[in-house]
Write a structure and sequence with these properties.
This protein is an alpha+beta fold. It has a single domain (4-207), classed as Alpha-Beta Plaits (2-Layer Sandwich), CATH 3.30.70.100. It is 39% helix and 20% strand. The chain is built from 8 helices and 6 strands. Helix 1 packs antiparallel against helix 8 and helix 2 (41-47) packs antiparallel against helix 8. This is DUF1330 domain-containing protein. It comes from Symbiodinium natans.
Length: 209
Amino acid sequence: MDGKDHNVEPNHLNPAVFDFETVLVASFKDLEAVHSWWSSDQVFELMKQRGPLTKMGLHTVDGLAQGFEGTKKRAAMGDKLMLLEIAKIDSFKPIQRYVDMYKRLAAKAHKDIGTACNLLFAEGISGVLLNEFPVQAICASCWRTRSDLLSWYEAPNYQQDLMPLRYDFAKCFAVAVPMYEDRKETGDGDNFKRRASAAAGMKLRGLQV
């Protein structure tokens, strides 16, 4: 959506801030559940499969909505896209205004744009488990269609009130990602990684709200 140069570096003199390819959002009941998952044997086995050049960031943020389990019915009938806005802060107070205003505008989105904004979180990072990306603030909202998402992103309130704060006081990468993806086919050599990932996922499922 915006900030592509912060994801894919334009040249070697300007390295990308958020050069990642995959996003995973998980919900937990509380911080104790987060650390229980992070310190589990299943996650340890999964982390052992990381390649030497793999980068990863794991951050916690206070949520604004109850977590839910992905099901075929929810994938077919519910929200399908997530708008993520990830920021490295250059000036704290303006970005604090940004996330506060984000929540206020999201609360009255149905009145302003005719579409409800399902806001998952809009806060500064509350904790760090693995810090290989300089994530300091993040907003996430869910949408049924791309047109609904664009009605929010292109609304006058967003463009006039939120966008200037982002451009002037942070390095931000805004991206729309599918909430549900079909499993990709992989080679036989990835079987162990798939098993480790599945085990970590089952541990997560047991702790998820």
